[in-house]
Automatic annotation (TrEMBL):
Record's keyword annotation contains NAD: yes
Domain (Glycerol-3-phosphate dehydrogenase NAD-dependent N-terminal) ranges: 14-169
Protein known as: Glycerol-3-phosphate dehydrogenase [NAD(+)]
Composition-biased stretches (Basic and acidic residues): 350-371
Recorded family membership: Belongs to the NAD-dependent glycerol-3-phosphate dehydrogenase family.
Gene Ontology biological process: carbohydrate metabolic process; glycerol-3-phosphate catabolic process
Subcellular location(s) per record: Glycosome
Length: 371
């Protein structure tokens, strides 16, 4: 690890909250690098299996976990003395989970959130949610990018992600801590840009899955993903994100991975909708969390609340269209027909406005060496 002047002194201890697929992947990365790492799981029996057999009984079938990776169901055993805490609980469960453990987390312990989504009840991103529960002054960082858990634990090839924080030193410390020869972390200060990409790409992946389920072909898939990224950029602009972040790993990069790769749960969910299954049928037959489903409903409400102008459904036709399908108001095929019959428009009708925003946002250029 390359230590920065603000780096904490040894021994560094890591706690991971959430022992699902990505919690296990992050825990594995940290333990492989020799940091004492403990995963907080909900079920003591699962903790015992991880500790004695170095495997998770439900997730990551066939994967042997590092012996240095411990598990517990007792927050008091791992949170109070952790140097860093990684938060890997799905967005919609995060508030309840954090409420239940907040008394065990010291005031200054930095939290690295790896969760992607918009909370339906508050329409807030993970940064808003965590600050709401743990306080405005909490040091926070956010990891996002194309990073399927299974590929990480299998040590396949290479993964590149971005860690964003308002405190660039914290982002750098965490990037140095987690990066290894096969997992590369870039850094950024554009927290909202990174969060918007991570949340919206899951919604676009539902649409990509529908496209595939309907058997629409490569032209349709490429068109949908590109136009989806355009809506991601438009939303990012509204919230002050940098266009370069949206074009980066956590935006377009993660959208590619999730829409075109075979592992995405969101894409699989969309595929089944495209094949004609109902939401109820899919939800009843899977325990996998597809974060995009709740995020799709939250994002359109967020757009309606925060974006000016009328007929926002025409500015964000893909996001609104996917939400309508999830609400049972249209079928995937009707959604497609609506998109294809939209009024004629310039490909990038908001480009002029984008240019002005860019000129105003000097910070876009200031740390351009930093992802
Ligand atoms: N799986 C991936 O490849 C991947 C990659 C990058 C980011 N992420 C993000 O990481 C976050 C976690 O995803 P995951 O893949 O680990 O999810 P998962 O479904 O595999 O696991 C979720 C974990 O959260 C725990 N949890 C705690 N409180 C819960 C509650 N009230 N209800 C349900 N579960 C609860 C579960 O026990 C489980 O251990 C998500 O926001 C996801 O978008 C996942
Ligand atoms: O399986 P998904 O669709 O939740 O995607 C997992 C990760 O976010 C990919 O980067």
């Amino acid at each position: 690890m390359q230590a920065s002047p603000s780096s904490p002194t040894y021994p560094i201890r890591i706690a991971v909250m959430g022992g699902g697929n990505f919690g296990l992947a992050m825990g594995t990365l940290c333990a492989r690098q020799g940091y004492p790492t403990t995963i907080l799981v909900r079920d003591e029996e699962i903790a015992q299996t991880i500790n004695s057999e170095h495997r998770h009984p439900r997730y990551m079938q066939g994967i042997e976990l590092p012996t240095g990776l411990r598990a517990t169901s007792d927050p008091n055993e791992c949170l109070p003395d952790a140097t860093y805490i990684i938060h890997a609980v799905p967005c919609q469960y995060s508030r309840g989970f954090l409420e239940s453990v907040k008394d065990f987390i010291p005031a200054q312990t930095p939290i690295l959130s790896v969760s992607k989504g918009i909370e339906t009840s508050s329409m807030g991103f993970m940064a808003d949610l965590i600050k709401d529960v743990l306080g405005e002054d909490r040091p926070l960082a956010f990891l996002s990018g194309p990073s399927f858990a299974r590929e990480i634990v299998e040590g396949l090839g290479a993964t590149a992600v971005v860690i964003a924080s308002e405190d660039l030193d914290l982002a750098r410390d965490l990037a140095a801590l987690i990066s290894d020869g096969r997992f590369k972390c870039f850094t950024s200060t554009d927290v909202i840009g990174v969060e918007i990409g991570g949340a919206v790409k899951n919604v676009i992946a539902l649409g990509a899955g529908m496209c595939e389920g309907l058997g629409l072909g490569t032209n349709a898939m490429s068109g949908l993903v590109t136009r989806g990224c355009n809506e991601m950029r438009r939303l990012g602009l509204t919230f002050g994100a940098r266009p370069s972040t949206i074009a980066g790993l956590s935006g377009v990069g993660d959208t590619f991975g999730t829409c075109f790769g075979p592992l995405s749960r969101n894409r699989k969910f969309g595929y089944r909708l495209g094949k004609g299954e109902t939401m109820e049928e899919i939800l009843a037959s899977t325990s996998e969390v597809a974060e995009g489903v709740d995020t799709a409903l939250a994002v359109v409400r967020l757009i309606e609340k925060e974006c000016k102008g009328y007929r926002l459904d025409l500015k964000y036709p893909i996001l609104f269209g996917i939400a309508r399908i999830l609400e049972g108001k249209s079928t995937p095929l009707e959604g497609l027909e609506l998109l294809m019959n939209m009024p004629m428009q310039m490909e990038n009708f908001d480009e002029g406005r984008l240019g002005k925003e860019r000129r105003r946002d000097k910070s876009d250029f200031e740390d351009k060496t930093d992802e």
